[in-house]
Design brief:
Helices cover 83% and strands 0% of the residues. The protein is mainly α. The longest helix has 33 residues. Keywords: Cell membrane, Membrane, Sugar transport, Transmembrane, Transmembrane helix, Transport. GO terms for molecular function: transmembrane transporter activity. This is Major facilitator superfamily (MFS) profile domain-containing protein.
Length: 416
């Protein structure tokens, strides 16, 4: 039941990406909220096990839409100087919602919880009807006047403002650069050197978020808290444990949205990878010592657990999505986010399915050392390969992805 949504998320990412490209980002988000409302309605109507299975299947669709369409829409309506901060808000609201669910779950009855969660997507549907469509989508479909109106509303400017015309011209230029290329988008990406490098960066960032250990660590949190309670008297109920983790996640996401435009994507991703990697190695060492009956402070696993969750929420989770949205044009953005999300979902599915059996077979410390090695390897990759994308146009980012020989060849072509 825990891993089922991640399995359904794999095909659903392409469904919602196609829906967003075909019918608009706004309609895709309304579709997501409608599915969300259906989930809570089903749970209200029946306690049958198959109803809950269907609800879990639909959760995979909502996960796909929130991870593909939300960041795409946010990127396309945002100004360059705040798109990183707004991109991090996806993680901020995700952690806020999780913490709210933990608290509500401890205070209210089962039926009252379901009714409250049903109200949220219904209210969202009503409010979002008044929101504008993505200007990039409108221009792609020849609706220039609607795109101008949307930008005027989004930027709080007047119709004759030069900045609006400049932004419209830039969107058109970006889309003209993609004209003449084939419609099989993944083939275009894999055959074009620059697009392929951008895709590799997006994929590594997405996998780093999933393989940093946050997903299985959250799954293993109850065991860690239980060990801590036995050794140091830290007694917390399961609901209190989830609240602690929810607060840590919320603090991490809040920090990310506050500093990402000041420090940039690359430094924040590097730092969170290093800290997360070291915390996983420390956690692995603690379990190794514990298995060999060597005493070690009981606060170490709890602290390392919180550090991993904090780093995930403050860097790995939001920045992987922000970078993927910034290194691709409108034409490829939805497909790339869908593909990276699908591959990440496969990793999550197998982690949730096999983590505990494998941990019992080969030792949990081996798993944590693996996650630590993945984080530290990603930190090295960020330093060597990943360009800074903050406040930069696509052409500038792609110029950083070119080799010295490719830059010289391009300069010669321009001169000729």
């Amino acid at each position: 039941m825990a891993s089922l949504p991640y399995l359904i998320c794999i095909p659903s990412t392409y469904l919602v990406a196609w829906w967003g490209d075909k019918f608009g980002r706004k309609n895709a988000l309304l579709f997501m909220s409608s599915i969300n409302a259906v989930i809570w309605t089903l749970k209200l109507c029946s306690m049958n096990i198959w109803v809950f299975v269907i609800a879990r299947v639909l959760v995979g669709v909502v996960m796909a839409a929130s991870c593909v369409t939300c960041p795409t829409y946010i990127k396309e309506i945002s100004e360059d100087n705040i798109r990183g901060a707004l991109g991090c808000w996806n993680a901020l609201f995700f952690t806020t919602g999780s913490l709210s669910a933990y608290i509500v779950g401890d205070l209210m009855s089962y039926r009252a919880i379901l009714i409250m969660f049903l109200v949220v997507p219904l209210v969202h549907c009503l409010i979002f009807l008044a929101m504008p469509e993505s200007p990039s989508y409108l221009i792609k479909n020849g609706k220039d006047e609607e795109a101008i109106k949307a930008l005027i509303w989004l930027r709080c400017r007047k119709g004759n403002d030069a900045a609006i015309k400049e932004e419209i011209d830039f969107i058109k230029k970006e889309q003209r650069n993609d004209e003449g290329k084939g419609e099989f988008l993944l083939k275009n990406i894999l055959t074009d050197k620059i697009l392929c490098r951008a895709f590799q960066i997006s994929l590594v960032a997405a996998l780093a978020r999933e393989l940093c250990g946050a997903v299985p660590v959250l799954n293993f949190a109850g065991d860690i808290f239980q060990l801590a309670s036995q050794m140091m008297g830290l007694v917390l109920t399961p609901n209190q444990q989830t609240m602690v983790l929810g607060v840590v996640q919320l603090c991490g996401a809040t920090m990310a949205s506050s500093i990402i435009e000041k420090c940039g994507r690359r430094p924040l991703l590097f730092i969170t990878c290093i800290i997360s990697g070291l915390s996983m190695c420390m956690l692995g060492t603690w379990f190794l010592l514990n298995e060999n009956n060597i005493s070690a402070p009981a606060w170490i696993p709890v602290l390392m657990l919180c550090l991993c969750i904090f780093c995930d929420a403050s860097g790995l989770m939001p920045i992987s999505v922000v970078i993927a949205g910034e290194v691709f044009s409108y034409k490829y953005r939805g497909t790339v986010l869908a593909t990276t999300m699908a591959i990440a979902s496969i990793a999550d599915f197998f982690q949730l399915l096999f983590f505990k059996p494998l941990a019992k077979t080969i030792g949990v410390y081996v798993a944590f050392y693996f996650f630590g090695a993945m984080c530290l390897s990603t930190a090295l990759y960020v330093i060597l390969v990943v360009p800074e994308t903050r406040n930069r146009q696509l052409e500038e980012i792609y110029d950083d992805l070119r080799t010295k020989k490719e830059k010289e060849k391009l300069e010669n072509q321009i001169e000729a």
